[in-house]
Amino acid sequence: MDGVLSTPDYNRASTFVIEFRNVGKIYRSLLGNSVKAVEEFSLQVGQGEILGIAGPNGAGKTTLIAMMLGYLRPTTGTVEIMGLPARTYVERNGIGYLSELIAINPKWKAETALVRYATLAGIPETEIHAHVNSVIEKLGLEEHRDKRVKALSKGNLQRLGLAQALLREEQILVLDEPTHGLDPVWTQRFRGIVEELRRPDRTILIASHNLDELQRLADRVAIIDHGRLQRVVSTGYDQTHHTATRFRLTLASGQERIRESFPSAKEAGKGEYDVTVRSIQELNTALADLISRGALVASVVPERSVLEQQFREAVGESQ
Amino acid sequence: MIIGLLWGYTLIEPLRRTMGAAFSIGPASPAWPLVITVTSSVVSVSVLIALNGIVSNDRKMGYYRFLFSKSVSPVAYYTQLFFVYMAGVLVAMLLLSGVLHTVVGSFNIVNYLLYAAVIYIAMGGIGFFLSVATRYDWVSLAAVWLGSRILRDLYGAKPGWRSKAVELLPPVHKLSDVSMSLITNGTAHTSDLLWLIGYGALFFALGLLFLRRGSLAD
């Protein structure tokens, strides 16, 4: 059962690793037309934090990440990593990066590509094969190691992309749409991999359309739309926040008692009811009351996840 | 290599067949300028092929994303690549001139490699800059190279600002003299060499500056 709600007051991180300060990016064409991709974006990401970045298509997520890696220069503002300009940090330390579009020379073999990236990442020659074998095993690419990149399926290519991001023990990982193209088994495994990657000294950014994934993995989620930061949502439970949230309640027995505990319950199907509460305390009190009346609760599922609810509100507000 | 061999074969072999035992090409023979024209053109084409997409291809195809998320400086990476490609061009020219030397004994391999190195820097420097600055680098380079030649022919000797302006264009007009003297004798006017190398080196440095200061992404 998901908790009800969310505030932006994240203070777990003791040190800010990544800082976007009033960042703006305007694309200008040769004809003088301009498009604002990002506007006045300010955000700090702490050490040990997993930050999700969510937003509709064209919201500016990829532009933000490109500026964070120093691939694009902000038109205004600054992006700093560990107090250094982003590009300087990347050139000195490297970042584990999985891009939304996996672009690897199609003529390379999967293993050769990883060896080359490991060389570029500065892994000592004597350790390269150990690192490469480790990520090949972790991402289940053993049978594809000798295949050319162009022969890999979308899912295997995505895993190869993730493998190159994990070659070295980087302090910062940036994963842009990491489960795009992965089958359900590997989507599940990916979540396990990210959980394993979580370390107090490692910061992870995940940009995704998949709100459920971000809800499960991230500590906070920055919701972006029209190039602006709309809100930052903590994915943890917030017992102080009060807002109307609808749950789908399934009862195995005691259906006749539902309205004694939830007066506004609406029947949604056989033994299923939609109930609206203003806090998890209210939900738990009513549930306890219902159970004490002899009802048997089979499941309680929020109509929307906390994040989804916030996302809809934030994106709706910005339209 | 293939282009060079084909080019050389189709131009020199008929000459050799026609002249039979009298075939002898040396600096004093009337066919010598033809040899110089063909061999110098092969160098230009090789440079064009070698540097095609050196930076722009990584950008267009998106390869830069994984390359430069590693602890790698794009400036150092492309500088290294530029000189690795230069070595490749010189090796190809060495093989080609070795073949040519077996047919035309007076063709000096070392002189030819010197010329190839000069042209690689002169033309390659501009090509590198165009690859950093544009998506269609080889087309731009060919246009700049040919355009400079045409504009110099049109306005170079005329009085007025145009003749001064064309002086700023790549010094392609010096190529004929440099190729003839460098490949034949191993020497050339120092000022011509400095112009060619300096011009290419300046644009190579500008390309590196653009890489440093500009955006890697499109």
Summarize the structure.
With 319 residues, chain A is an alpha/beta fold. Chain A has 10 helices and 14 strands.
Number of helices of chain A: 10
Largest sheet strand order of chain A:
6-7-8-3-9-10
Main sheet makeup of chain B: none
Largest interface: A-B, 27 and 17 residues
Task: Provide the domain count of chain B.
Answer: 1
Order of helices and strands of chain A: EEEHEEHEHHHEHEHEEEHEEHEH
What is the CATH architecture term of the largest domain in chain A?
3-Layer(aba) Sandwich
Q: Which class of secondary structure composition applies to the elements of chain A? A: alpha/beta
Strand fraction of chain A: 25-35%
Q: What sequence of helices (H) and strands (E) makes up the elements of chain B?
A: HHHHHHHHHH
Number of E-state strands of chain B? 0
Largest sheet of chain A: 6 strands, mixed
Tag the structure with descriptive keywords.
heterodimer, A: 319 residues, alpha/beta, Rossmann fold, Alpha-Beta Plaits, 2 domains, six-stranded mixed β-sheet, 14 strands, 29% strand, B: 218 residues, mainly alpha, 10 helices
Describe this structure in words.
The complex is a heterodimer of chains A (319) and B (218). Chain A has 2 domains: 16-234, Rossmann fold (3-Layer(aba) Sandwich), CATH 3.40.50; 245-318, 2-Layer Sandwich (Alpha-Beta Plaits). Helix content of chain A is 33%, strand content 29%. Chain A has 10 helices and 14 strands. Chain A has helices at 61-68, 86-93, 110-120, 125-138, 154-165, 184-197, 211-217, 258-261, 280-292, 306-318, and strands at 16-28, 34-46, 50-54, 76-81, 84-85, 96-98, 172-176, 203-207, 220-225, 228-234, 245-253, 266-269, 272-277, 296-302. In chain A, the strands form 3 sheets. Chain A has a 6-stranded mixed beta sheet, sandwiched between helices. In chain A, α6 (184-197) links the parallel β7 and β8 (203-207). In chain A, α3 (110-120) packs across α4. Chain A starts with 15 loop residues before the first strand and ends with a helix. The relative contact order of chain A is 0.17. Mean pLDDT of chain A is 89; it is low at 1-14. Chain B is mainly alpha-helical. Chain B has one domain (2-213). Chain B has 10 helices and no strands. Chain B has helices at residues 2-19, 32-51, 56-61, 64-67, 74-103, 109-133, 137-155, 161-166, 175-185, 190-213. The radius of gyration of chain B is 19 Å and the shape is globular. The two termini of chain B are 33 Å apart. The mean pLDDT of chain B is 86.
